[in-house]
Amino acid sequence: MTSHHPVSDQGQTILIYVVVVGGLLFLAFAYFAFAQAAVARNGAQSAADAAALAAAQNVRDQMTDGMIQSLGQQDDWASWLLGNHPVSGTGYAAAVQFAGENDATLDGLAPTTVKGYPAFEASITTRFTVGKSVIPGTEGKHAKAHAVAMIEPRCSVKQSGDSKLVEFDCDGRPWAIDPKKLDLTELPQPKDLFAVHLAE
Fold first, then answer.
1. Could you tell me the sign of the dihedral formed by the alpha carbons of 92, 93, 98, 100, in that order?
2. What is the value of pTM for the model shown?
3. DSSP state, 185?
4. Which long-range contacts link 163-171 to residues 24+ away (Cβ below 8 Å)?
5. 54 and which of 98, 106, 167, 170 could share a cystine (Cβ 3.0–4.6 Å)?
6. Which residues of the chain have pLDDT under 70?
7. Nearest-CA neighbor of 94 among 55, 148, 147?
8. Is 4 a domain residue?
9. Residue 152 has what pLDDT?
């Protein structure tokens, strides 16, 4: 007497194997889709960070120029040095450039303040998409991100015993400048006066 159970068991085993393998493949593709999305988000954030930092650095340079040009005005230079002087520049062109270099488009750049200091918020959209995946619609989806970069003064004003000198201290380094005898090669650089970093 011949039994047919082994053939039936074999068929069931193959069916289970196909279902399991199919499920594992779907999970693998889904994981890949999430990885693609994570890469797109990281790229978008890098572009937003670069745009915001570029704008802040550009304005920092303008603040340094304003401070140096006002050294002969005993009150005005201090407001530049401490980040309290109004700034007309926005750093927009620099933000557009750095967003583009990171394969993104600048959607907006807004001046703001962080801890009372000048700051800039950049919003971007990537030019690249997430890409095709098992999740419908990802092939045309662009990532968006925003970042805020601030300009933080490094210096404090010193009370000078010599009215002819402009004196201040930047992160422990003292500066004493005679406005009537400016040596452009010995003046502080923007990075000496202001730190530019992403806001936390």
1. positive
2. 0.76
3. G
4. 166/71, 166/74, 166/77, 168/78, 168/81
5. 98
6. 1-12, 15-40, 73-75, 130-140, 160-163, 200
7. 55
8. no
9. 96
Q: Which domain holds residue 29?
A: 10-151
Residue 85 is predicted with a pLDDT of: 86
User: Coil, strand, or helix at residue 68?
Assistant: helix
Token digits of residue 184: 């452009």
Phi and psi angles of residue 114, each rounded to the nearest 5 degrees, phi first: -135, 120
How many domains are contained in the chain? 1
Answer whether 144's CB lies under 8 Å from 123's CB: yes
Asked whether residue 30 is assigned to any structural domain, the reply reads: yes
Q: What is the pLDDT of residues 32-49, one digit of tens each?
A: 555 556 666 878 899 999
Beta strands 173-177 and 166-170, pairing class: antiparallel
Query: What is the amino acid identity at position 78?
Result: A
Q: Does residue 98 belong to any structural domain of this protein?
A: yes
pLDDT of res. 127: 87
In a domain, 184, yes or no: no
